[in-house]
Design brief:
The complex is a heterodimer of chains A (226) and B (296). With 226 residues, chain A is α+β, with helices and mostly antiparallel strands. Chain A contains 3 helices and 11 strands. In chain A, the strands form 2 sheets. In chain A, strands 1, 2, 3, 4, 9, 10 and 11 form a 7-stranded antiparallel beta sheet that branches. A 4-stranded antiparallel beta sheet of chain A has the order 5-6-7-8, with no helix packed on it. The longest helix of chain A has 29 residues. The radius of gyration of chain A is 34 Å and the shape is elongated. Chain B is 59% helix and 0% strand. Chain B has a domain of 178 residues: Cytochrome Bc1 Complex, Chain C (Up-down Bundle). In chain B, helix 7 packs antiparallel against helix 10 and helix 8 runs antiparallel to helix 9. Chain B contains 10 helices and no strands. The radius of gyration of chain B is 29 Å and the shape is flat. Classes of the chains: A alpha+beta (226), B mainly alpha (296). Chains A and B meet through loops of A and helix 8 and helix 9 of B.
Amino acid sequence: MSDGADKQNGAEATGRPERPQPQPPGYFEGESITRRRAFEGAVHGLGGLAAAGIVLPAVGFAVAPIFHRGKERWEAVGPTGDFVEDTYRQVVFTETEGIGDAGKTTAYVRRSSKELGEEPGRFVAVSNRCAHLGCPVRFVEAAGNFICPCHGGVYDFQGKRIGGPPVRPLDQFQTRVRGGQVEVGPRFSVTSQLEPVRARDPGEFTGGIWEYLYPPRPSTFPPPSS
Amino acid sequence: MKLDSLIPAPLRKPVKPGEGNGAKGAAPADLKTAPPERPSDAKKLADRAAQAPVDVLAWVDQRTAASGFLTGMLFRKVPKGTNWFYTLGSATMIAFVSQAITGVFLAMFYTPSTTQAYRSISHINNEVFLGQLVHGMHKWGSSLMVILIFLHMGRTFFFGAYKYPRELNWVIGVVLLILTMTMAFTGYLLPFDQRSFWASVVGININGTGPVIGPYLSDFLRAGPELGATTLSRFYAIHMLLVPGAIIALIGAHLYLVVKLGTTAPPWLKAEKPKAAAPVARLDAGADGNGAAPTS
C-alpha cells in the first residue's frame, strides 16, 4: 500500500502541469528580491545598528584603560649623597596616585658600580616587586641578595634571578638627578642580560620570542634608551 | 491523603484514572423529613475565608497556566536509587541564594572606595548590629559554595550524568563554575586590607601569564598598569552586577534542562529488563517484515 502511495506521489511530482504562480501585489518581471525579504533585511539592519549604538560605547568604555597611558611621574627620593655603590637604600614613593598608601611602592636605590660593569655616575633603582607573582621582595644586607617571602624567589645584588620560581630579573625604575636630588620615574623591565625593555607584569618572561608572546602594553612607558 | 488537602487544588497531583471518589452517591432518603441544617452566615463567611487562598491561587493560575508547569516540575519522576548525592546541586544553589541575600545587605553598608572600603568593612564588623554575622556568612559561604560546586561536579562526573543527552548541561555547569570562581576572586579584593590587596595582585598577575592576551587581560582587570582606585570599583561592579545576573540566568537554564531531561540513575543500578510484552496478535505483523508472525 505504501509503495503504491509513493508511486502516486512521484508521478504527481514529475508530471505536474505548469501552473501560473500566484503573484504578490507589486510583482514585476525581473524582480531580484521580494518586498518581504527587503523589509526583513532593513529591520534587522536597523535593529543591529541600534544595538551597536548601545553596546559599542559601553564596551569601549570598559576596555579603554588598556590603551590609556597615565602621566609620567617623577618623585625625589633623597639627595645624591645618600646613596652608595656597595649597598642599597630603601625608598618609598607613590607609583599610583589617588589611592593613598595602597598606591605607594618600594624601590632599592644605589649608585651604579664600575666593578659590575655599569655606566658610572648614574643611579640604579630596583623595584621590590617580585618578578614571579608580584609579592614584595626585600634586600637582605648580609646575603647581598633580594629574597621573596611568598614562594622563595632569590635575586642577586643586581636583581638577576639566582633561585626560585621568578621568570626574569627584578624590574627597575628610571632615575635622574634634578637639583642634587635623585628622582625615580617610570618602571621598566629587563631581560636576563639586564637590557631594558618595556614594563611587563610579574610572571611574564622578557627577551627573545617572549617579547612577542607577552607583547608590551600601551599603558606602559617606553624603556630608557641605553 | 492528608498531604493532598494541604496542596492547593491547581497544584495537586492529578488523580489516576479509576481512583479517587469520582462517583456520586445517592441522595439521603430522609432529605424531606430531616433536612440538613442551613449553614449560618458566620459559617458561610468562614468557609469563604478558608477558601480564599485557593481562590487567589486559582485566579493566578487561570491567567498564567502555571500549575501545569509546576506539577510537571514538582511531581516529576526520579529514577530508582536517587540518593543524598543528588542534593549537592540544590545545596550549591542554596549557597548562592544565601550569598545573594547577605551580599545585598552588605552592599547597604559597604563603600567601594579605596580610602573608605576598609573602614566600611570594619564598621560592618564592629558596629553594625549582627554585621559580623552577616559578613561572616558571606565570607565563609563563598568557600562553601566553591566546595559544594566541586562536589556537585564530582558527583556528575562519577555517576556519568554528563553523558548524552546531558552534555549541554555539563557545559553550562562548567560556565557556572568559572563564574563562581570569578565571584570568589573579585569578592576577595573588596575588604581592601593587606591580604586582599596582595592576593588580588598575585591573582591578576597569574591571569597575565597567559600568552599574547594575558597582559591585556591584566590591564583590563586593573583598569590600568597598576592596581588602583578604578580596580576596586571595577571588581565591585563585576562582583555585584555583572556576574550575579549571568549566574541567575544560567542556573535557570541549568534547572530547565534538569527538569526537561530528567536525572540519571546511579551507575551501580543495573537497567531493568523490559517486561515481556503481552502476546497480542498484531494485525500488521509479518506484513512489513519486521514483526514476528502471530503466535495465536
